[in-house]
Amino acid sequence: MRGLFNIVIFLLLFIRSVQVMDTDLVDPFGCNETLFNTSACHQVSYDYYCTLSRSTQDWFRELYNEALADGPRTRKEIRTLDDAERQAYIDAVVALKNDKSVWPNKYDAIAMIHTNRTLCSAHKGTNFLGWHRVYLLIFEAALRQKNRNVTLPYWVSVIDNYMDNHPIPNNSVIFTDAFLGNSDGIVRTGPFKHWKDLENCTLQRELNSNNSMPLISPKIIDMIQNNLSVHHMKQIVYDENDDWTTLEGQHNHAHDWVGGMMHILDFAPQDPVFVLHHAFVDYIWTKFIRKQHNLNVHEEYESVGQDVKRHYPNRTMDCFYWLKNVDGLDPKLAANVIYEDSPACPDCGHSKYLKCDATFNICIPDDKTESAVSNQVSWSLRILFILFRVMMVCFELRECHLFCGDCTGCRDMSYDAI
Ligand SMILES: [Cu+2]
User: Fold this and answer.
1) Separation of 391 CA from ligand 1 center, angstroms?
2) What separation in Å is there between the alpha carbon of 249 and the centre of ligand 1?
3) Ligand 1 geometric centre to CA of 372 (Å)
4) Whole-model pTM?
5) Domains, the chain, ranges and CATH?
6) Is the separation of the CB atoms in 262 and 269 below 8 Å?
């Protein structure tokens, strides 16, 4: 039986070494991106800004006009799409990356909107929601040029809070090959593997690397959607004293939780999870607007922000030269976008990746180790943890000699020591 114990230790060490290699964040292909430091926002010009050429901005305008002229389309939680719908969406995203008819390619051209000084006016203030709504409309219109049946899904990251995070942290099915690929280091599996940006930076994630990042809070999202005293946009976009309670502050958590490129403003749209995350932010805002209507609250654009001049209603939206910040509130932007409600019990959107927890009446994502998605390392670890559990029971039964030959020192052996 000592042999069995040795085999377990060997397997554990082997898997641990594989994990260490896999989570290495060093980009073997090199990465020379220069990043804009948003703390310098107050030092740079307040003039209209966009890194992209006028012809690319004109293309954005065409996409925007197409989005507004487009018919009703339904955005659904990504785990409720059936396999064919999800694959069609993924294929359309990949097609944008491969389409070089716009420099450097259609995906990156749109991602590059969210870089440099544009970041100053798109965040930390009133313009945050409207500017990102325009971004999503443009992205979705480009997708629908690839496939008319595709709409932008959203990712309800709130429910990932309830996932069982053991034995491997963060087993969200979102980060499997069937969805967005792996979450630990360089993205080397799934449909976006080894994606690179213009500067040769490879797509990277570091999901909840130190296990301390909070994900979007269900409580705060519930407050934004349902608390009747929270009914002005300025209450949910920016609060220099308490960013925790704002939608923008909460949205930052999901960026940090995914980590890697999502964690850095200039890089974030390089990860396809960016648009899924922002579609969820837009979904929450849509719910908030519905609450305002029910309360007969007429929203006036009121500038708040860290760098408030950039959030003035009549300032031109960076990269969207045909729009003013105030236009982000125009109901016509959302007129034909229908959000299917986020998955709820008992059927959880009929998703095979979600299950209803009857005790809390909430849909919980399947741990990917329990889903049909193949993941050899996860399966190996499951088997090892089952072995550990058997060992634990045996120790408790004082049967440790089964594993270590004799009982000397068995009592002192803890999982930490192993
Ligand atoms: Cu942003």
Assistant:
1) 48
2) 11
3) 33
4) 0.81
5) 31-342 (1.10.1280.10)
6) no
